Amino acid sequence: MFFPKAVLPSLLHLTPAWLRERGLKGVILDLDNTLLPYGEEDLPAAYQAWLEALRGEVPIYLLSNALPERFARVQTKLGLPGHAPALKPWLGFRRALKALGLSPQEVAVVGDQIFTDVLGGNLVGAYTVLVPPLREGEFFYTRFIRMLETPFRRPRGGLG
Ligand SMILES: [Mg+2]
Question: Which stretches are annotated as coiled coil (predicted)?
Answer without folding.
Answer: none
